[in-house]
Amino acid sequence: MKILILTHAFNSLSQRLHIELKKRGHTVSVEFDINDAVSEQAVALFQPELIVAPFLKRAIPETIWRHHTCLVVHPGIKGDRGPSALDWAILKGAPEWGVTVLQANAEMDAGDLWATVNFPMRAASKASLYRNEVTDAALQGVLLAVERMEQAGFQPEPLDYAQADVKGTLQPLMRQSDRRIDWQQDTTETVLRKIRSADGFPGVLDWIYGQEVMLYDAHAADGLYGEPGMLLGHSEQAICRATVDGAVWIGHLRDKQGVHPFKLPAMRVLGKRLAELPKIVAGYSDIHYEEQGRVGYLHFPFYNGAMSTDQCNRLREAYVAARRRDTRVIVLMGGPDFWSNGIHLNTIEAAESPADESWANINAINDLAREIITTESHLTVSALQGNAGAGGVFLARAADRVWARSGVVLNPHYKDMGNLFGSEYWTYLLPKRVGEERARRITQARLPMGTEEAGELGLLDGYFGQDNPQLLVELKQRAKALADDADFDQILRDKVATRQADEQEKPLDEYRREELERMNLNFYGFDPSYHVARYNFVYKVPKSRTPITIAGHRDISKRPRDDWSQAS
Ligand code: COA
Predict the structure, then answer these.
(1) How many angstroms is it from 341 CA to the middle of ligand 1?
(2) Which end of the chain is more exposed for a tag (fewer CB within 10 A), N or C?
(3) Where does the record place the Formyl transferase C-terminal domain (predicted)?
(4) Is residue 154 part of a domain?
């Protein structure tokens, strides 16, 4: 089937649909919903049999839905309507939620129902639920709807609130007043629900020492108490604030009125004002290590998978410490939502010299990658519970094995960030795994990749588990089996020998020097593309056109000239 994905942005959900629909043999093209004329043109060019809208910020124009079946992915249960579906479900503590695939018509979210898939709710942020449960349910719902479209005579169900299974309602846009925190009244559980309902966007508006900030990245601060509303201290970059029955850690803030009005680590936003705030030893940490038998697990659930210079340095230290332990295997766990998205573009944007900070950050991540690549005492595994992008994919590849949860999305390319050349020893790691020709294709194509394709290409060594609990069970068995392998010593010797041979052929330092030479041009050269692209990314400047890599219908080279002029 010819399917057009009409979406506000090519976000994780749209990427997953793109991968899975293509895998099933459909011809898929993507158009960003910029305005009516552009969307209409895309439809005229592509002539889709179906339009799927996974993430829209406005209604589909009537000129389109009147003549084409348009299926909207709504992150709500049957009957739920409105722009704050997940926000309300989290704030109200709904035990179960869902995704409904409905047909676009004149009334927002009120069209006929093609599929609904429900899931149990988890105590997590909106963004985390979106990237996991919602994405999986949306995929199931869209696949079901596509199957139903192909069935002769299937009739979607009109929305009818008299039906017993239609439990949702029309809910308004959630306002800041709906989730404002009352520090004198709210329990830890309530504060967490309020912040999570707005995390990643828009954040909960609050005041800290009179400064207006948006709150994100909240966690319970077990065992800490104080006068409700009081700041108790900080740990790494997070601040701790007391509630009526405990306290919460807040990892990230956004100062909308500030010089840098985007998300940054909390202490980076408040730093100078909080000079006196005590450091809480053994407080919150974005890196932790655990051991089971002869396997060490290093977790680094960095917010949004972004790795600042400081985080890379701390992670390298933690990795080196893990390597000193009497274990055989080290598993690099990343976090539950992302494994890594490479260098931290927000802290770079906020630096006095973004070029210098980019340089420091890429060198810090390279130092970490180097420690992993040159490890001779252990076998190493990267375990991807969540997506990885850009340098994050290659950092994962620095380990001896890369295993992933089925369905994670990889973006193994840098070029979308203003033609960034990239480093993390990718020029060594990628061709070594997939060969020169495929390496070139992967980095040029700039497309998201599913686990199946990444497995076939050799970018992944295995993928399993439909969700993280399933992944963890099998991961632990596999890691233990690797550590207990009767041939462990031989496997380790072979790995060391291969590395030595590679080093003889071309030293790691040489790869790094060549990559950094190109990165130096990206950061300090005459072409400002990387700085512009980073600014646009951090400030979330809407895209003004869909890249040709995903909008196949706009690729003039693939269309007869007459055809093009008719559509324009
Ligand atoms: N630095 C800082 N923030 C980052 C980041 C990075 N490297 N990568 C992602 N983020 C943030 C996004 O700004 C977004 O923030 P929000 O919570 O305010 O919305 C959040 O992480 C999720 O990213 P999003 O783009 O919405 O996720 P996605 O799953 O749809 O897309 C990527 C994933 C990897 C394709 C996309 O995030 C990306 O291109 N990231 C930049 C990768 C990069 O170029 N890194 C630098 C070179 S190594």
Answers:
(1) 6
(2) C
(3) 175-256
(4) no
CA-closest candidate to residue 33, choices 3, 71, 59, 67: 59
The pLDDT of residue 44 is 96
Distance from C-alpha of 113 to C-alpha of 100, rounded to nearest angstrom? 7
Question: Ligand 1 pocket: which of 237, 341, 362, 443 to mutate (most atoms <8 Å of CB)?
Answer: 341
Distance from residue 384's CA to the centre of ligand 1 (Å):
16
Model-level pTM?
Answer: 0.96
Q: Where are the beta strands (DSSP E) in 385-426?
A: 387-389, 401-405, 410-411
Residue 345 confidence (pLDDT): 98
- Check pocket membership of 7 for ligand 1, CB cut-off 6 A: no
| pLDDT tens digits for range 64-84 | 999 999 999 999 999 999 999
CATH of the domain at 55: 3.40.50.170
At residue 294, the pLDDT reads: 98
pLDDT band of residue 242 (cuts 50, 70, 90) is very high
Say yes or no: 229 and 368 in one domain.
Answer: no
Nearest-5° Cα angle at 157, 151 to 161: 165
Query: Residue 248 forms beta bridges with which residues?
Result: 220, 241
Cα(394)–Cα(409) distance, integer angstroms: 14
Q: Which of 304, 393, 449, 531 to mutate to test the pocket of ligand 1 (most atoms within 8 A of CB)?
A: 304
Domain assignment present for 316: yes
Q: Is the pLDDT of residue 567 over 90?
A: no
> What is the tally of structural domains in the chain?
3
Q: Where are the alpha helices (DSSP H) in 241-294?
A: 266-270
Residue 282 included in any domain: no
Domain extent at residue 406 = 288-467+489-522
Return the amino acid letter for 84: S
Q: Is 306 in the pocket of ligand 1 (CB under 6 A)?
A: yes
* Ligand 1 close to Cβ of residue 463 (< 6 A): no
Does position 229 have pLDDT exceeding 70, yes or no? yes
Confirm or reject: Cβ of 417 under 6 Å from ligand 1: yes
Residue 15 CA: which ligand 1 atom is closest? 30
The pLDDT tens digits for 416-435 are 999 999 999 999 999 999 99
At 217 the pLDDT is 98
Ligand 1 contacts CB of residue 304 (under 6 A)? yes
Q: Are residues 182 and 330 in the same domain?
A: no
Atom of ligand 1 nearest to the CA of 365: 48
251 and 211 inside one domain: yes
At 256, the pLDDT band (50, 70, 90 cuts) reads very high
Confidence (pLDDT) at 565: 47
For residues 268 and 353, membership in a common domain is answered with no
Which ligand 1 atom sits closest to the C-alpha of 391? 48
Sheet of strand 387-389: strand arrangement: 338-340, 387-389, 410-411
